[in-house]
# Entry
Amino acid sequence: MRWHYRLLMLCTAAVLAAGCSNNNQPANDTTTIAGPNASLTACETYVGDFVFLDANCNGVQDGGEAGVAGVNVKLYTCEGILLRTTTTDANGHYEFTGFQDDVVKVFFELPTGYSFSPKDQGGVDAADSDAGADGYTDCFLVECDKPINFMDAGLCGEDVPCESSVGDRVWFDANCNGVQDKDESGVPNVTVELRTCEGGLVSSTTTDGSGGYLFTGLESGSYKICVVLPDGYDFAPKDQGGNDGLDSDVNADGCTDCFELDCNDDITRDAGLCERKGGGSEGCTPGFWRNHLSHWAATPYSPDMLVNDVFGCTLVPAGVTLGQAIDAPQTYGVLPFHAIAALLNATHPDVDYAYDVSEIIDAACSGDKDKLADANEAGCTLSGGNTTGGGNGPSGGKQNTR
# Structure
């Protein structure tokens, strides 16, 4: 029962001078309401706020999400009696004023092509969506001079196109370490394909003068990037260095792993290209590399790098470095002993080695020690640079271990 009715019950003829009147009008009433509640009187009441396009459909008014104009909004009593009708303005705003205090609810008429956002998300009532799936808010009490200015509705645009993008760069990895080092340039005119995870071609482009490429306007889904390998190149090792924005993301077949796009931009899909050196007939033994550390400086590898990080698989116990593994084959095994030497041979500019880095990593991780051992004994063209005193001529001599 409304407060002025309760007040009426307490009033008697003996106490009219204390604040009650014969016509039962509260002091702030202004006009008489026509319609279903004609016996009640009006006061300064207000209900309103905002209908917004919830771009990510999370039920929260995020920054930059615009209002929706022209949405029909209705105010009902909780018994279903229509009190007011309006439409949202150009900014998505609406309001109802000038009716008596009452228990009411707001109804938002859903435009074609939209659905309602999830209700009561985010914990902030002024920034959530209050409309249920049927378009109605919960019932709430409106009292004189207590405005309700947070009854919002979020609309998910079911037919609004998704604007995802994916891309980045194809670059020449001069030291073939799988990382975009300073001054390593992009490779232009390389064909890059966007494919579904099943292999279907979605789109194709070529890299620009800086090696950059970009696919835009993509629907949500699962994709992969495939780079067509130019003549004279091999792909750099994948996922090196710990920075996804600077590494190479393609596998030996030139394609990335599958990834998801859902109205987002992914500008981290790079591919490093190394100069092809495989097919040569030179190779220095692990013993040579163990005893001639100064020659490592011409490669992208150093003795303090971790073996398992470099190869991307478990060849030795965690924490073992390249220098430790190549110095102690009796402790860590002859597979990492030869695999490390093979990487050094493949990336040294003065050694024409039989295999490229990707082939070496594949052989090491699959346990094919003999393939690498044979290539490491093809004959070494390097000499000098003996930093430990253990060398025995340019081939490493007695340092060879099968």
